[in-house]
Design goal:
alpha/beta, Rossmann fold, six-stranded parallel β-sheet, 9 helices, 9% strand, globular
Length: 222
């Protein structure tokens, strides 16, 4: 794991799926049901290949790895329908989120969301949980040209926050997201979970146990 010393942190960018909310567990369930209806099984390897990436990548990946003969657009549209039917009641904020947001607000550190998912969907989830007001803006995957692991989304987030990327703390949970933030020059903290285990996140500067891990909070005091 990289051992670069942390820089002074002037802003924080949050990924959303699997980082702010436990949506990855719901997607794993939905994808499993979708493939089971076709006599196929959704695997951890498929999840690893898809997590943190934009829909333009995840659809073809799922079709290829599952050996389906349906158009990726149709498969992902069905996945979204299944997901949307459950998302308002089946997801929850991740542990430590409110503690971290409270600390950031106390210290006046600006915050944004930079997610591979569609902006409208991100606003829906954040709005359902009263979280939109905690962030300066939400940057969706449909608002950039190149999705994660390309650095564009975090470079854009840093620019909109008015900070140099080297002083941006990025909180991530996927290998693609970690690669994106590292390429942008940000300081990256990754938080592993069941669907994105620690070995795939080794390029992060720090692996934390949860969002309000004392090591994360200590970065804000630098």
């Amino acid at each position: 794991m990289p051992t670069d010393p942390p820089p002074p942190i002037s802003a924080v960018a949050f990924d959303m799926d699997g980082l702010i909310f436990d949506t990855e567990a719901l997607f794993f369930r939905v994808a499993g049901e979708l493939l089971a209806a076709r006599g196929k099984a959704f695997t951890s390897e498929m999840m690893t290949a898809m997590i943190g990436r934009p829909a333009a990548v995840t659809g073809p990946t799922l079709v290829a790895m599952a050996g389906l003969d349906e158009p990726p657009e149709a498969i992902m549209a069905e996945a979204r329908r299944r997901f949307d039917a459950l998302v308002d009641t089946a997801i929850h904020p991740m542990p430590g989120l409110f503690s971290l947001l409270g600390r950031l607000e106390e210290q006046g550190i600006p915050r944004a969301v930079a997610t591979s998912t569609r902006r409208a969907y991100a606003l829906r989830l954040l709005g359902n949980h009263g979280l939109i007001e905690h962030f300066a803006f939400v940057l969706g995957g449909d608002e950039v040209t190149r999705g994660k692991p390309d650095p564009e989304i975090y470079e854009t987030a840093a620019s909109r926050l008015g900070v140099d990327p080297s002083t941006l703390l990025v909180l991530e949970d996927s290998p693609a997201g970690v690669a994106s933030a590292r390429a942008a020059g940000a300081y990256v903290v990754a938080i592993p979970h069941d669907h994105s285990p620690a070995p795939g996140l080794a390029a992060a500067h720090l692996l934390a146990d949860r969002l309000d891990d004392p090591r994360v909070l200590a970065l804000l005091d630098g």
